[in-house]
Amino acid sequence: MDSKTRQQLIRYAEIYETERFMQGDPSWFMHQVQGVRNQEAMAFIASCLSYGSRQQFMKKLQTILDCTGGEVDAWVRSGRFGQTFRDADHRCFYRLFSYDTFSRFLSAYQQLLLTEGSLGDYVRRTSTDGATAIEAISRYFAPHDLGIVIPKNTQSACKRVCMFLRWMVRSHSPVDLGLWADFLDRRSLIIPLDTHVLQQSETLGLLTSRTATMSAARRLTAVLSTIFPDDPLKGDFALFGLGINGATSAKLTT
Fold first, then answer.
1. Helices (DSSP H) in the chain: which residue ranges?
2. Within 13 Å, how many C-alpha atoms sit on residue 222's CB side?
3. Fewest CB within 10 angstroms: 22, 131, 182, 224, which?
4. Which of 104, 73, 69 is nearest to 86 (CA)?
């Protein structure tokens, strides 16, 4: 990586990690509720729904926020979600998620809350770093046949789980909450990798892989750690900024 690319990444990370970043981003929703448990629950649900068209899934997240009245944890814990989402209701809720799919997901999440206390308590008990946290979350939901919502294993990039962990672990950020910063090290987090980030990283010469796998996500994170050694996922904002500005390797050298 040349020095100009490195400096551009550092500059964009500073420009884009601001409160304005949340406008049109799913992270906005976790800032609309009060209390650690509500923020954690809203963040988890928001991350699970964040794929496809932002314009469309943001509408669905607003629907859920409205249904909960801001009391997201109690909405799940008490089973009140059943008033909106019912088993065997195969109408489409969002893309590949039917109402049945989301009912089963929320039922599994409710079970976790009732047995573990919170998702944070579960991750604290089962995980030592970002990688084992991804594995623990995937392992918990795997028996519930919810691979469409949360990957059953960590062979894929697990982009939405990685994004959720970024929100939970990175502290002193105007975007990320840092609720789990006391038991997970932000240096152990793995970049949320999707096709867009993959293409951007390939264009910049940061990565040669053309498939969004966990192995590729780890390699990109390792590259970002040479730029942001204390906080590799600051690079997530940098890559976002480069994408917004239509940056290319040629543009970076001008």
1. 3-16, 27-30, 36-49, 54-68, 72-77, 99-116, 119-126, 130-141, 159-169, 195-203, 214-227, 234-244, 249-252
2. 7
3. 182
4. 104
Q: Which helix (H) or strand (E) holds 93?
A: strand 92-94
For residues 46-78, one letter each, b for 16 or more C-beta atoms within 10 angstroms of the residue's C-beta and e for the rest, the string is: bbbbbbeeeeebbebbeebbeebeebbbebbbe
- Look up residue 169 and give its two tokens: 């672990």
Nearest to 163 by CA among 69, 38, 25: 25
Distance CA 211, CA 234 (A): 22
The helix/strand/coil state of 251 is helix
pLDDT category of residue 210 using cuts at 50, 70 and 90? confident
For residue 119, report the phi and psi dihedrals to the nearest 5 degrees: -65, -35
How far is the first Cα of the chain from the last one, in angstroms, to the nearest whole number?
A: 16
What pLDDT does residue 245 have? 73
Angle at 61 between CA 60 and CA 62, to 5 degrees: 90
Hey, what are 216's tokens?
Answer: 């590729």
Q: Give dist(CA 45, CA 230) in Å, integer.
A: 28
DSSP for 50-63 reads --S-HHHHHHHHHH
**And the tokens for 165?**
């962990």
User: pTM for the whole thing?
Assistant: 0.95
pLDDT at residue 175 is higher than 60: yes
Compute the distance between CA of residue 179 and CA of residue 40 in angstroms, rounded to an integer: 8
